[in-house]
Amino acid sequence: MSKKNRFELDAERLATTDESGARVYLYPEDVVGVWKNRRTIFYWFLILLYLVFPWIYIKGKPALMLNIFTREFTFVGFTLHGVEPIFLFLVVISSLFFIAFLTSILGRVWCGWGCPQTVFISTIFSKIETIIEGGARARKELDEAPWTINKTLRRSLKWFCFTIVSLHIAHTFIGYIVGPRELLAMSLHNPMENSGLFITVMVVSAIFLFDFGWFREQFCIIACPYGRMQSVMMDENSLVVAYDKKRGEPRRGQVPRDEEGDCINCYACVKVCPTGIDIRRGTQLECIACTNCIDACDEIMEKVKKPHGLIRYSSENELLGKKHSFITPRSILYFCVFLIFISAFAYFISHISRPNLVFIRGSDSPFQTIIEPNGSVEITNHFTLKITHQGDETLSLNLEVSDELLRKKIEIVSPLKNLKIDSPNIKTMVFFKFSPDILINGSRLIKLNLIKDNNIVTTEELTLVGPSN
Ligand code: SF4
Ligand code: SF4
């Protein structure tokens, strides 16, 4: 039987805790391989997108900005003003169900390929650590070594670099909220002039520094709500990083050579795992699908002249030789719920993107009676009209009575003739002047069209009032 390897994990507890429950620090080894290359390219693409996107200005506004203070949301040149909580709710809930849909098909693809934690740690923080402190073994030795000038210098330099990177990530993050130019301008002044913002940036930087620099896999294992929920979203048809037991077992050292499977029990897959697990024990909550173990094992397979793929992207059903399909009732259900919420969002957007009219009747008297010089009697009603609209373009609006016959009898006396609207909220006075013979028992419900660029953008109802006889 095999002698216990130091990478052999205790079946009863996590690799990241000891018998007393204290944290065991991991020193995952670097890995090279096809998946690592793919992920590195994709990660740098995401980082560039994250850093550059807010600096792209379209129509004078950042390409993406969610200003929670002014409730303004800007996306590629279109601005929503006074964003209601329902808008954010629909965005968040649609995203959650879309991620659930992707998870049910592609497993923890978000953790391995899109999560900022994985992207920043793998691409920047681990690299800085390796350059300053060396590979996995050197880092472990440095950790265990007594404090010397060498260790102090290396540690200080590492945390200084981590701090600079965290500050940069946090500033970019806040730039998505207040706008990068505005943030840059504020940053050049005394921090106390914008103390709230300054404290926010410092707190966000500290959170990034703590998490990416020190907490790391602990977040995935014990704190991430998505990690906890993934077992609900996935099933035996979901794509996961998995070890092919049928091919690999019995592993080397457990049986005579001619009976063993392809796994040579080298623990290369365990040594590179950022959460410290042994994927040969099956799919586990701690697996973030980073693909490191695929590359590590493929490298070993090349050395022992066996085909790649002992560890690979697969599904439990596929590994068991059962029929499997990525599209399951569960994934269809998630997609349908996503469609419902995204449709509600689209409906909401299409409605708020139209100018909205609110007529507030004048508070002095509901109507006035005017005797014209020719002796005819006319009635006037006056209103305050509130117009709100989304977007930043200047609108040119007109108001007309919908009914053509009534249009000739009701005069709209107001500035609302080619009114230019260059702010998301305006108020104006509107007078309606009409003959009392249009009234029925002292009132008349009319419809009004709001015209923009010769098109009716919305129709509102309004009641005109006058003497009842
Ligand atoms: S088991 Fe493999 S894919 Fe999962 S976290 Fe560890 S190295 Fe990454
Ligand atoms: S890297 Fe491959 S061969 Fe080595 S222990 Fe892991 S599964 Fe077995």
Write up this protein:
The chain is an alpha+beta fold and 469 residues long. Among the domains are: 34-83 and 108-233, no CATH class; 356-465, Sandwich (Immunoglobulin-like). 43% of the residues lie in helices and 20% in strands. The protein contains 16 helices and 16 strands. It has helices at residues 34-52, 85-106, 109-113, 116-133, 136-144, 149-178, 180-187, 195-215, 217-223, 225-233, 245-248, 268-271, 292-303, 316-319, 329-352, 404-409; strands at residues 57-58, 61-62, 64-67, 72-75, 78-80, 240-243, 311-314, 356-361, 368-371, 377-388, 395-401, 410-413, 417-421, 425-434, 443-452, 455-465. The strands form five sheets. Strands 8, 9, 10, 12 and 14 form a five-stranded antiparallel beta sheet that branches. Strands 13-11-15-16 form a four-stranded antiparallel beta sheet. It has a three-stranded antiparallel beta sheet with strand order 3-4-5. Strand 4 and strand 5 (78-80) form a beta hairpin. Helix 2 packs antiparallel against helix 15. The radius of gyration is 33 Å and the shape is elongated. 25% of the residues are buried. The mean pLDDT is 88. Residues 241, 272-275, 277, 279, 287-293 line the site of one iron/sulfur cluster (SF4).
Task: Give the helices and strands, then pairings.
Elements (H helix, E strand, L loop, with lengths): L33 H19 L4 E2 L2 E2 L1 E4 L4 E4 L2 E3 L4 H22 L2 H5 L2 H18 L2 H9 L4 H30 L1 H8 L7 H21 L1 H7 L1 H9 L6 E4 L1 H4 L19 H4 L20 H12 L7 E4 L1 H4 L9 H24 L3 E6 L6 E4 L5 E12 L6 E7 L2 H6 E4 L3 E5 L3 E10 L8 E10 L2 E11 L4
Antiparallel strand pairs: 1-2, 3-4, 4-5, 6-7, 8-10, 9-10, 10-14, 11-13, 11-15, 12-14, 15-16
